[in-house]
Amino acid sequence: MFGNLDFDVIRRALPYLFLEGMTFTLTLTGLAALGGLVFGTALALMRLSGFKILGRIAGIYVDFMRSLPLVLVIFWFYFLVPYIGQWVTGASRPISVGAFASSLITFIMFEAAYFSEIMRAGIQSISRGQPAAASALGLTYAQTMRYVVLPQAFRNMLPVLITQTIVLFQDTSLVYVLSITDFLGAASKVAQRDGRLVEMYLFAAIVYFTISCIASYGVRRLQARIAIIR
Amino acid sequence: MIEISHVNKWYSPSFQVLTDCTTSVTKGEVVVVCGPSGSGKSTLIKCVNALEPFQSGDILVDGIKVNDPKTNLPKLRSRVGMVFQHFELFPHLKIIDNLCLAQEKVLDRSRDKAKAKGMQLLERVGLKEQAQKYPANLSGGQQQRVAIARALAMDPIVMLFDEPTSALDPEMVSEVLDVMVDLAHEGMTMMVVTHEMGFARKVANRVIFMDRGEIVEDAAKEDFFGKPRSDRAQKFLSKILSH
């Protein structure tokens, strides 16, 4: 059954697939995860803060993002950002931001919503006595968060955060709607060009599967190592 | 040192937790606060360093008004040591780092200085060998002694104890009380919420008895154990001293 399949097409496309495609995918995943983490922490702190209005704003944002399909957000954002840029800067024409910047911002905003919920659960998992003890020692709110609550919360939630990042790694393939050459996009271009759909998509699946599997295994190892003994 | 005057705290008009509490702790004095559970004694002691807000009345610590929005609370709290029922050591930090954190971040002491101070206090509570361990590796009694050392590392002017022995196994209670007795003998100003009447008899100057959010009795130790004036205090005492 594999008689008329040509797996050599994969070998020939390797440099293109990995140097261009995978590099883009990993860059986007890394930057989006980093940005999502920062923005997500801010959202989580807003939701947990005493200020009701801040909490409401963050809550609405999170619910909004989580109620939309990612591919729709990517698509909309790509078309909307130039106009928002024009409106903000007061330029005469829509500002072109480029597909990469647009997709990166989208992923950061989207992931932040998910990360913030993970962070919120992580922070809430720390007993109230801990921040009380920290403030009783004279630490400020910011110091309490930085040295006492967040380090513990991060350890609790790191496995879930990385798992979410693995999902993000797979989700970045959705940038195909902007015709960006990520790993899947590269594979699909070669597949169309050479008429080798089965080979290329099979190979892409194996690569995604392998990387995600190894990462998941790493998470389990990490989890055992960093867990705080109680 | 601590002036508590007419403090009221409520969660709703029908749910009053502290009613018109007035008392004081002078320098070098050891005051024991006791009473049935839910009587508001923990809440009162937490009001002293503003871990719990209250709606009316005033609390002054060393002349500084705790409930003044302009008060620099972190600074005030750094001078008031507090020991909690559940120890509240930081589980992600080694014992010695538990003692150093606030010294470095709040008092701006150098790492070496903080460490030296920490080791000196660990030695004092008999736990020098445990410095490099994590809290989870220590017994409850040891953790509570570390918590006391952690509070002392800030050179507090007064120490607050919120039921420091209630979460301990019986055989560990005395090792913690011993440290507290030593502290009292050294002249530390202390406010202690506890049911340990032996401790109160030994070192307290005054005993405050609370019930349903009110200070029912506030008397010198001899008077309190000799002839408590209120029925409620008598009943409470007969219950916990009968065995």
From TrEMBL, chain A:
The principal location of this protein is membrane
- So where does this one cross the membrane? 24-46, 67-89, 95-115, 160-180, 200-219
The record's keywords, sorted A to Z, are:
Cell membrane, Membrane, Transmembrane, Transmembrane helix, Transport
Identify the Pfam families for this entry: BPD_transp_1
Q: Where in the cell is it found?
A: Cell inner membrane; Cell membrane
Q: How does it sit in the membrane?
A: Multi-pass membrane protein
Q: Where is the ABC transmembrane type-1 domain?
A: 22-219
Q: Which Gene3D superfamilies did the record assign? A: MetI-like
Q: InterPro entries, from UniProt?
A: AA_ABC_transptr_permease_3TM, ArtM/GltK/GlnP/TcyL/YhdX-like, MetI-like, MetI-like_sf
PANTHER family hit by this protein: GLUTAMATE_ASPARTATE IMPORT PERMEASE PROTEIN GLTK, MEMBRANE COMPONENT OF AMINO ACID ABC TRANSPORTER
| Family to which the UniProt record says this protein belongs | Belongs to the binding-protein-dependent transport system permease family. HisMQ subfamily.
What the entry lists under NCBIfam families is as follows: HEQRo_perm_3TM
- This protein is called ABC transporter permease subunit
UniProtKB/TrEMBL annotation, chain B:
Q: Which InterPro entries does the annotation name?
A: AAA+_ATPase, ABC_ATPase_HisP-typ, ABC_transporter-like_ATP-bd, ABC_transporter-like_CS, MetN_ABC_transporter-like, P-loop_NTPase
Which compartments does it reside in?
Cell membrane
- Signal peptide region: none
The record's annotation in Gene3D superfamilies points to: P-loop containing nucleotide triphosphate hydrolases
Q: Is the Membrane keyword given for this protein?
A: yes
CDD domains membership: ABC_HisP_GlnQ
Family annotation (Pfam families): ABC_tran
Where does the record place the ABC transporter domain? Answer: 2-237
Q: Provide the alphabetized UniProt keywords.
A: Amino-acid transport, ATP-binding, Cell membrane, Membrane, Nucleotide-binding, Transport
Q: Which PROSITE patterns match?
A: ABC_TRANSPORTER_1, ABC_TRANSPORTER_2
Q: What's its membrane topology?
A: Peripheral membrane protein
Gene Ontology MF: a single term? ATP binding
**Function as written in the Swiss-Prot or TrEMBL entry:** Involved in beta-(1-->2)glucan export. Transmembrane domains (TMD) form a pore in the inner membrane and the ATP-binding domain (NBD) is responsible for energy generation.
Family the UniProt entry places it in = Belongs to the ABC transporter superfamily.
User: Can you say what this protein is called?
Assistant: Amino acid ABC transporter ATP-binding protein
**What phylogenetic lineage does the species belong to?**
Bacteria, Pseudomonadati, Pseudomonadota, Alphaproteobacteria, Hyphomicrobiales
